[in-house]
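TASK: fixed-backbone design
INPUT:
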């Protein structure tokens, strides 16, 4: 019988779970193990919660459910529906508006849970992982699917992830560090920031997309040579080294206590251009950047 409790033998320190989300974790484990039985291999916590950067104001509790390769599609669909109900009733998503909930549930950039088969996860085939997780179901979703930096999404999911139930599958995975994706990261971040600029004029949740645009860019351009998973704290430390930044202060303030800020959302695309220019300049002038440039020349 598999354990129906959090793992205690993981080599990675398990983040402290806020009391208000303990019920969500427990019900998610009970529901998934009850629906899947022995087909459930592992439950993995990833994202800001696993990195110790959780913000009650804007963060999700991100879970990856790994099932065996012979799990029927009907079982996966049943589990997906059950987790969605839990998210909307006792999870962080319970405070989301319908607009943000629809967008989040239909794109992998905001989806807070994935259900994938064991073999698909081990293959690290980003395309298969996203197809299996049924992501990007919005209009023009196929176009965005091909544009999105899927390899970076998978890499960020695995880096800093913690097994909270079942087998330590992460020990069998060698997570690649995708290179040469700065342009794609910028494009996706810019699309999100433009969407945030427009939606903030209409919806209270619009600024959330602007915050996510900057967060995505910072995470995927954070310093790689330093130990541990890439996180916002490392990226923010890098930016603070460039000098005082009013936009950075507003970004951190809105993550701490969310409110709609139309001015921040309208300024976000220009700030991303600034971050791109500084990141490119810093990357080419650093020893690591020079080595990488020599490899690609």
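OUTPUT:
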């Amino acid at each position: 019988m598999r354990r129906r409790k959090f793992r205690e033998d993981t080599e990675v320190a398990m983040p402290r779970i806020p009391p208000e989300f303990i019920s969500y974790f427990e019900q998610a484990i009970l529901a998934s193990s009850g629906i899947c039985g022995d087909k459930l291999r592992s439950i993995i916590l990833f994202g800001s919660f696993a990195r110790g950067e959780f913000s009650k104001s804007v963060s999700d509790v991100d879970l990856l459910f790994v099932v065996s390769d012979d799990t029927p599609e009907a079982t996966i669909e049943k589990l997906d529906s059950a987790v969605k109900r839990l998210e909307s009733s006792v999870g962080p998503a319970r405070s989301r508006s319908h607009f943000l909930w629809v967008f989040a549930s239909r794109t992998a950039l905001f989806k807070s849970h994935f259900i994938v088969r064991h073999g698909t996860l081990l293959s690290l085939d980003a395309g298969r992982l996203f197809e299996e997780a049924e992501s990007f179901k919005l209009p023009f979703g196929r176009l965005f699917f091909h544009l999105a930096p899927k390899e970076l999404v998978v890499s960020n999911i695995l880096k800093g992830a913690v097994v909270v139930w079942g087998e330590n599958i992460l020990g069998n995975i060698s997570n690649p560090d995708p290179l040469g994706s700065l342009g794609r990261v910028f494009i996706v971040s810019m699309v999100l920031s433009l969407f945030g600029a427009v939606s903030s004029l209409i919806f209270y949740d619009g600024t959330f997309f602007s915050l996510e645009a900057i967060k995505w860019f910072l995470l995927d351009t954070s310093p790689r040579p330093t130990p541990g998973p890439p996180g916002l704290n490392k990226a923010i430390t890098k930016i603070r080294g460039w000098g005082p930044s009013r936009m950075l202060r507003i970004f951190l303030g809105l993550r701490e206590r969310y409110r709609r800020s139309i001015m921040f959302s309208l300024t976000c695309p220009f700030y991303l251009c600034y971050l791109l220019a500084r990141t490119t300049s810093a990357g080419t002038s650093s020893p690591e950047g020079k080595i990488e440039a020599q490899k690609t020349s």
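COMMENT: Confidence is low (pLDDT under 50) at residues 1-13, 285-297.
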